[in-house]
Design brief:
279 residues, alpha+beta, Phosphatase 2c, domain 1, 6-stranded antiparallel beta sheet, 5-stranded antiparallel beta sheet, 7 helices, 32% helix
Length: 279
């Protein structure tokens, strides 16, 4: 298996690239990614991180991204991107769960999964686990996803203070993952994009050693392929202890009006930026 895996895609209103790398410590890569674009105005990218130390983590992450892409592309266009993506991630969860039940060696496999579609100037995302989805807009980086880890849940509940999280012994223990239960709670995010917005998805092997300020500065560079490579190279130079993956999509089209009027548009932006009120 090659050390790095790279993909890129271009359309009428986006440039996209994704790179995954085994890192400096691990022998195999339990991260997986896919990138697909229609060459016009729609692009899908997904990043998964197999549960480390468990049988089948590498298989689970690969299945997660492949099933998500296949299911999304096979779903009726009339469903719309949000429903197609949600159903695709649900199917990935069920198929990985079923595989784990019938193959004893894979009984404990699981994975995180963060998948995003940009269609008609709008970002649609489905998220489970601790890969992260960010947006860079007007020189500001905002994390749109929530980490589904034990410590992150404690922080949101006010049990642990944020400043203690980085060194907490359970900081990487997942509270939610694909393939662990028959039905998984999936965070859904919808956000209209503006021209020059940059969407970034990365695994914890990257963001654990690269600061948010650096993520912002490097991901905003052109071309997107070079930005991905720079982030991977810098994380490896710092000796990241995990596999690492990063995907970057730069949007440069017009933002359409969303249905539902001004109130619904404001509600969508607020939910995407704060995580409050998301279903």
């Amino acid at each position: 298996m090659s050390r790095s895996f790279k993909l890129s895609a271009r359309g009428d209103n986006y440039d996209a690239a994704v790179v995954t790398d085994v890192g400096t410590v691990r022998v195999n890569n339990e991260d997986a990614c896919v990138l697909w674009g229609d060459g016009k105005g729609e692009v899908l990218v997904a990043v998964a991180d197999g549960i480390g130390g468990y049988e089948g983590g590498e298989i689970a992450s690969r299945l997660a991204v492949e099933i998500t892409l296949e299911s999304y592309r096979d779903a009726p266009a009339s469903w719309g991107p949000a429903r197609r993506l949600l159903r695709a991630v649900q199917r990935a969860n069920i198929e990985i769960r079923n595989r784990a039940l019938v193959v004893p060696e894979l009984s404990r496999m699981g994975t995180t999964l963060t998948a995003a579609v940009i269609s008609n100037g709008t970002l649609f995302a489905a998220h489970v686990g601790d890969c992260r989805l960010y947006i860079v807009r007007q020189s500001k980086l905002t994390q749109l996803s929530r980490d589904h880890t034990v410590v992150a849940d404690w922080i949101r509940a006010g049990i642990v203070r944020r400043e203690f999280a980085a060194n907490h012994p359970q900081r990487s223990v997942l509270s939610r993952a694909i393939g662990q239960e028959l039905i998984v709670a999936i965070d859904r995010i919808t956000m209209p994009l503006k021209s020059d917005d940059v969407v970034l998805i990365c695994s914890d092997g990257l963001y654990s050693v690269i600061s948010e300020e650096e993520l912002k500065e490097i991901s905003a560079r052109s071309p997107v392929e070079a930005a991905c490579e720079t982030l991977i190279d810098e994380a490896n130079r710092r000796g990241t202890a995990d596999n690492l993956t990063v995907a970057i999509v730069r949007f440069f089209g017009d933002t359409p009006h969303l249905p539902g009027g001004p109130f619904e548009r404001v509600r969508s932006w607020f939910c995407a930026l704060t995580g409050i009120g998301r279903r």
